[in-house]
Amino acid sequence: MNDKLTKEEVLHVAHLARIKVDDDEIEKYQVELKQLLNDVDKIKDVEGYDEERMIAPWPKDTILREDEPGEMLNPKEVLKNAPKHSGNYIEVPIVISESEGA
Amino acid sequence: MSNYIPTVGIEVHCELKTNTKIFSNSINGYGQMANALTNVVDLGYPGTLPTLNKEVLNLAIKAALILNCKIRRQMHFDRKNYFYPDNPKNYQITQAETPIGYDGYVEIEVNGKKKKIEIEEIHIEEDTCKSTHRGTKTLLDFNRAGVPLIEIVTKPCMESGEEAKLYLEKLRELLFYSDVSDCKIEEGSMRADANVSIRKEVSDSFGTKAEIKNIGSISNVKLSIDKEIERQSKLYDNGETFQPQTRRFDSKLNDTVLMRIKETGNDYRYFPEPDIPYVYITDEQIEKVKSTIPMLPDERKEKYINLGISEVNAKKLIGNRALSDYLNELLEEKINFKTASNLLLGDISAYLNKNETEITKTNLSKEKFIELTNNISDGTITSKNLKEIINTIMESEKSIEEIIKEAGIQNITDNSAITEMIRKIIDENKESVEDYKAGKDRAIKYLMGQVMKESKGTLNPSMAMDILKEELNK
């Protein structure tokens, strides 16, 4: 087993997290991130790991909300926390590539 | 261009018709002032907790039922991670691992043959905010953030733009009739993406895929798929290849254009959403939802045709849900349904369109409609009369009998008078009579036209036709 990630893997993860890493940091992260992955892998040694996965320690009942409207924010309040706005819209620098969402 | 076998799969995002958003209690609305329908959950503020809307679950179950899907009894949500201003949490809450519905189908008719379009899965997710690009800036409106969506994904089982179009029309009809969504493509409450690839032989593996995103209308889905098949065919004919990519349909160019080359692998780093516990669906809940599904288009059509309504009229009625719902309340009545359907789709529709109103907002009660249909069936009211009194019928509270009396409608129902008139027409049109006897179909239509003209439209056409035939065959 390699004891460190490749340089490309570190840069890829940094890009996904939108973090800038300096050259001298890359080598450090190659080792540290790998160590972190190894530590997390230990969970797999727990008995019953492959059985039904539990996403939350929750009782077996479904928690739902009634479809009834509640209070909403005043648009003025919403815009207060936006660095820029244009009319009632929140303004951000032009996003060239198209949405990756929905 | 050589012949290739196209393979098409469709993904549809459909906004659910709820009062509030999927994970918060702010209003699910369209066309309001920007950023007026939000709260801290929709805006992704730290420390806020999403809670699932009960009605979202009910509508998703309903969609799964009408699309013949199996329904998962235990499910959870997942986070799809990405950085983009349309989602300040930096993840979208969706169902990647445990979609609520799976293995379903929708039946369409292609060139008279039935075909099942297989549904791979239906999953629930939240919509993102709406971004509008203007010059050097992008404007964000969070009214759409958190609007509940279902995404319906087909298997790659269609072979043309036409099949995709028929599938989408059927899907829209089903979701609209079952009140899952208002399915307004122009307002973005139903959005379609198409995956298109081509291959030489059925035995070949699927070709390289292009995804066409956010196409604004069903007819453009068909057009963009056909254009994409053509583009890929030309590339392969020239011995070229291409990378998997995302394209969009440009309605000005009437063609697809490249948006981006798709990233390989999956960088969304899905993981279970820890803020929302498991959701369990019981048989009882499914039965309860099932009982709320109204009569769906296919069943309506079959019923209408069995009652003597033409296939064309049956289709038209289904295309207008308000009229179809109106007629459905009369299905047990003893009326001539062919006449009733002509009446609804003819003069009544014309009145409703002209006055921009709905049938339930007029004074045309069920009783009055039955009376009117019967009066037309027995010839008391001719089509010409109807045009004169339709406004009164729709607007006044008077009975049909009173309206007829007031309008002074007295149609010729005396057989001898009609016979006399018809004999006169026959005498005046010897040539047409000869043509009729020589077997020319058109001649009788001409003679009938003369009869109606002479009577100034006051005759019951079927009665007049019977007498005309009788006289001609003497």
Walk me through this protein's architecture.
The complex is a heterodimer of chains A (102) and B (474). Chain A is mainly α and 102 residues long. Chain A has a domain at 7-45. Chain A contains three helices and two strands; from the N terminus they run H-H-H-E-E. In chain A, strands 1-2 form a two-stranded antiparallel ribbon. In chain A, strand 1 and strand 2 form a beta hairpin. Chain B has 474 residues and is α+β, with helices and mostly antiparallel strands. Chain B has helices at 54-66, 161-177, 218-237, 283-290, 297-306, 311-318, 321-328, 337-354, 366-377, 383-395, 400-407, 415-428, 430-437, 441-454, 461-472; strands at 5-15, 70-71, 74-75, 78-81, 91-94, 101-110, 113-126, 130-134, 137-141, 148-154, 190-199, 210-215, 245-250, 255-261, 271-272, 279-280. In chain B, strands 2-6-7-10-1-11-12-13-14 form a nine-stranded mixed beta sheet. In chain B, strands 5-4-15 form a three-stranded antiparallel beta sheet, with no helix packed on it. A two-stranded antiparallel ribbon of chain B has the order 3-16. In chain B, helix 1 packs across helix 4 (283-290) and helix 10 (383-395) packs across helix 11. The longest helix of chain B is centred in the middle third of the chain and has 20 residues, at 218-237. At the A-B interface, helix 3 and strand 2 of A face helix 1, strand 8, strand 9 and strand 16 of B. Strand 2 (89-93) of chain A pairs antiparallel with strand 9 of chain B, so a sheet runs across the interface.
What is the largest interface, and how many residues per chain?
Answer: A-B, 39 and 64 residues
Q: Please report the distance between the alpha carbons of the first and last residues of chain B.
A: 64 Å
Side by side, the strands of the main sheet of chain B go: 2-6-7-10-1-11-12-13-14
Report on the biggest sheet of chain A. Answer: 2 strands, antiparallel
Distance between the termini of chain A: 38 Å
- Assembly type of the chains comes to heterodimer
Strand content of chain A: 5-15%
Helical region count of chain B? 15
pLDDT average of chain A, as an integer? 85
The rough form of chain B would be described as: elongated
Radius of gyration of chain B: 29 Å
Order of helices and strands of chain A: HHHEE
Order of strands across the biggest sheet of chain A?
1-2
Helix content of chain B: 25-40%
* Shape annotation of chain A: flat
Characterize the biggest β-sheet of chain B: 9 strands, mixed
